[in-house]
Design goal:
Helix content is 41%, strand content 18%. The chain is of the alpha/beta class. The chain has a single domain (5-305), classed as Aldolase class I (TIM Barrel, Alpha-Beta Barrel), CATH 3.20.20. The protein has helices at 8-14, 31-42, 60-67, 84-103, 126-137, 156-169, 189-202, 230-241, 246-254, 277-286, 297-305, and strands at 18-20, 50-56, 74-77, 108-114, 146-149, 173-177, 206-209, 218-220, 225-227, 261-263, 267-270, 273-276, 288-293. An eight-stranded parallel beta barrel has the order 1-2-3-4-5-6-7-13, surrounded by five helices. It has a three-stranded antiparallel sheet with strand order 10-11-12. A two-stranded antiparallel ribbon has the order 8-9. Helix 2 links the parallel strand 1 and strand 2. Helix 4 packs parallel to helix 5 and helix 6 runs parallel beside helix 7.
Length: 309
């Protein structure tokens, strides 16, 4: 924590919060342009808010070729595909290659992976999570934090609790998708509330991704979608850790009034509730690790506009 008490809560809330995902939609920049944006952000006054550069494992070779000795710290997506028959072997091959690159000096600081859909009604995600955990433990990347995403299909809510319990047993993190390029990709607040409650109960750290370009939930006229806010998720995650009910978490996630959110030198505030800097720091260390955004400037400028920076 910084010595300056006036910035303690802001630093606790926003330090390294935004992992840069410029390679992904809707920005979908080429590697050179994304690297340039990332480097500009690292040189800017809000570099302390910037986390890792997100890249698919399948594009790492291109990234190394273009970046040379300027490869940034990475969160690598193990893009093993959605076919359950080949997913594990693909994952193991990606881990092996990634271990070689890390040994050569590539800064792999986090891993992200999506599980394939379950094939039968009898299956749960327990076995797949165990297979991934075993593959990771047997690789030289065993010390790298890994965040696992469940397919958001008709079984997502029923399987969530058991899957998060399995992640806790294997000391893996979770990942939640908050949006995308179609309306169906945006989960309801109750779904995110369920995810936050489950990860809080099992003390599983998590990352979020997609749809969180702006601090507060709002209707986006350009896309026609109602988009979640990262401040909503941050506050709700803190309240989940404090044991609040899912209904309370849902109210926080559903709030579209920017005036209900505030942050000063001591605490994050929502509608009269307070999360002090110490609890924010604990949340960010072991709970809400980061979220992926294809823009760094948009969330920063929005926070400035709301006078929260």
């Amino acid at each position: 924590m910084p010595a300056d008490t006036h910035s303690a809560a802001r630093r606790a809330a926003f330090q390294g919060l935004i992992d840069y995902a410029g390679l992904f939609p809707p920005a979908q920049l080429d590697i050179a342009a994304a690297l340039q944006e990332y480097e500009e952000a690292r040189a800017g006054p809000y570099a302390w808010m910037l986390g890792r550069f997100i890249v698919p494992a399948s594009r790492l070779e291109d990234l190394r070729r273009i970046a040379g000795d300027r490869v940034p710290p990475l969160s690598v997506i193990l893009d093993a595909g959605g076919d359950a028959r080949t997913w594990l072997s693909n994952t193991q091959a990606l881990l092996a290659r990634l271990a070689e690159l890390r040994a050569a000096g590539v800064r792999v600081e986090a891993l992200e992976i999506a599980l394939p859909p379950l094939r039968t009604k009898r299956e749960s995600y327990d076995a797949t999570i165990g297979q991934f955990a075993a593959s990771l433990r047997q690789s030289p990347l065993a010390d790298v934090p890994a965040f696992v995403e469940l397919p958001r299909d008709e079984r997502w809510e029923n399987e969530l609790s058991g899957a998060v319990y399995a992640l806790a047993r294997h000391r893996l993190g979770a990942k939640v998708r908050c949006g995308g390029v179609v309306a169906q990709a945006f989960p309801e607040p109750r779904e995110i509330a369920a995810f936050l409650a489950a990860t809080a109960e099992e003390r599983v750290p998590f990352k979020a991704t997609a749809g969180l370009h702006h601090p507060v939930r709002h209707f986006n006229e350009a896309s026609g979608f109602t988009m979640h806010g990262f401040l909503n998720v941050l506050a709700a995650a803190a309240f989940a850790r404090a044991g609040r009910s899912r209904d309370e978490l849902e109210r926080v996630l559903d709030d579209e009034e920017a005036a209900d959110f505030g942050i000063d030198g001591e605490a994050l505030r929502w509608n009269g509730d307070v999360v002090d800097a110490g609890r924010l720091h604990e949340l960010r260390e072991g709970g809400f690790i980061a979220y992926g955004s294809c823009s760094f400037t948009e969330p920063v400028e929005d926070l400035r506009h709301l006078e929260l920076l």
